[in-house]
Design brief:
Helix content: 40-55%
Keywords: DNA-binding, Transcription, Transcription regulation
Oligomer: single chain
Strand order of the largest sheet: 2-4-3
Strand content: 5-15%
Organism: Isoptericola peretonis
CATH architecture of one domain: Orthogonal Bundle
Protein name: Helix-turn-helix domain-containing protein
Structural class: mainly alpha
Pfam families: HTH_20 (PF12840)
Number of strands: 5
Shape: globular
Length: 198
Amino acid sequence: MTTPPSDESRATPARTVTEAKALAALAHPYRARLMDALKVDGPSTATELARRTGQAVGSASHHLKVLHDAGLVAEAPELARDRRERWWRLVTRQLRWSRHEFADDTAAVAAAQAAEALHLQRQFDRVRAWQANAESAPEWDRTAFATETWLHLTPAELAELGEEITAVLVRWGQRPTPDDGAEREPVLVFGRGFPAQP
């Protein structure tokens, strides 16, 4: 049985990733799924994560160790019922990185590019999966949204806009779950802002 993320874990500040080892760990599709499962479900065992992601327990355990060695997950021994049970939690729910910070380290730049490409592909895949199945959930189909806006900005203004949008998402992510009996589903919201031409 998974434990939903606590209000305390939701309020953990974002971590800026500065190590190539952590970026390389994030650039693996299954490890990215494990990180997402821990964000959605909260602390879990390898068995629960394997069930959630449709993988073997041994595979989940191996990839959790890689994430642990990279400083991205930590054991949560206080949740174990006995010495054999191992629980895992995220070190922080929010990660950020910038290729600019790794300009002198070609291995780190390559890892950052691979991690970013993986996350972008996973976003596309999730949107396609939703579009293919949206009619099966009409109550969600009416509220799911996509938005696109062209703006004229300086780099500083784009940074400010990004901070404002991130602050809104963080506020919603950190809010205590209302005790109103309503059933809530995991919802993915993502946005990107970058220079482009029509």
